[in-house]
TrEMBL record:
Gene3D superfamilies: Metal-dependent hydrolases, Urease, subunit C, domain 1. The gene is pyrC. Its EC number is 3.5.2.3. One of its GO terms (biological process) is 'de novo' UMP biosynthetic process. PROSITE patterns: DIHYDROOROTASE_1, DIHYDROOROTASE_2. It comes from Natronomonas moolapensis (strain DSM 18674 / CECT 7526 / JCM 14361 / 8.8.11). This is Dihydroorotase. Keywords: Hydrolase, Metal-binding, Pyrimidine biosynthesis, Zinc. It comes from the Archaea. Catalyzes the reversible cyclization of carbamoyl aspartate to dihydroorotate. Binds 2 Zn(2+) ions per subunit. Residues 44-367 form the Amidohydrolase-related domain.
Amino acid sequence: MLFRDATLADGRVRDVRIDGESIVDVGTGLDDDGETIDADGKRLLPGMIDAHVHFRQPGFPHKETWLTGSKSAAAGGVTTVFDQPNTEPPTVDAAGYERKAELASASLVDYAINGGVTDDWAPEELLEKPIGALGEVFLADSTGEMGIGTGRYEEAVKRAHDAGVPITVHAEDAALFDESVIDRTDPDAWSAYRTAAAEIEAIRHACRVAADLGARVHIAHTSTPEGVEATSEAGMTCEVTPHHLFLSRADLEELGTFGRMNPPLRSEDRRESMLRLLADGDIDIVATDHAPHTRTEKDAGIWDAPSGVPGVETALPLLLEEARNGRLGYDRIRDVTAANVADIFGLEHGGRIEAGNRADLVLVDPDASVPIRGEDLHSKCEWTPFEGRRGVFPELTTVRGCVVFRDGEFADVAGRNVRR
Ligand SMILES: NC(=O)N[C@@H](CC(=O)O)C(=O)O
Ligand SMILES: [Zn+2]
Ligand SMILES: [Zn+2]
């Protein structure tokens, strides 16, 4: 297959030839010997590698399944996902890993299965499995109540570091949550409760522990500029979610409990700073923390609704909309959604359009901006916190050379475990 006259992230116009699972040539005037896709005026980007999703199986197939989650991924230009361990059973031992691996074989996109840490985890057998990362390691309870103490955290970092496995940390310190707001019932109460200081302090602590052990950790869903600064000062990496880039406490009146997640939405000032830090190169990657719950589950009081919002299908479209408006470069989008992710999580031959790399590709018409509608998305939960905002959705997505999504249709192809 040949993409003819595609505009790459850096602005070069090139032909890109793929053969089997790989990109074999990037050049000009390449011969076509099979299907040719006219990519004139379109952007060809490496597929997004989403280092943080919750596809909910085993345990919660009413929220999401590997099939629905991976369709949502493919339609949003995501070609690899890292699934988090807070399923039921949690992915904390060999049996938990194997159970998830069976179900994950239904995925249309490639995937990695992360291992988790609880007081009941079985580190030896878990770390012998080909896990994507150890994480998210929960320093406070979130969905699944897998929060651990600092002694266990140190043990986990030590073991994963020795095993050469990347570590992803959910950094919040429950001791710094503001108990004085628990009588409030408005949706902003969650943001007031799970304070910015609780995240910032936990990030500092998580990085300090890792640095003392000579290890490297990656901080999940960083929601504060102070947290970003703490990570880079410590020589660690961090991710930001689309919701912390594009939503803030100012949206909570409209979103209600559908805007509840951990860490919570922050002030409009902090949101703007996060977007600037992303554009300037100070935030390493964007990961979605795709965390679907049903409408019925979310439609509860602010203290009872589960935390989490879907996002795997809308992340790249929202970023491409920023590019369309000139607020973010395409090369930066390539780095934070693909190239840097491949580097941080050790995915060889991924994340860049170069001869010899995996043919994980996304073709988009950069001007095809449309309003985002929950009912048009493919996640089982059928709602989005970005309802009505604009996004630029892909026309075509390939995973290792297979067209998995094209003009609204999915092919029946099999995703693979990237660590196998
Ligand atoms: N982010 C969330 O609010 N929820 C996530 C868990 C998590 O990532 O903390 C979930 O699994 O629902
Ligand atoms: Zn988390
Ligand atoms: Zn998460």
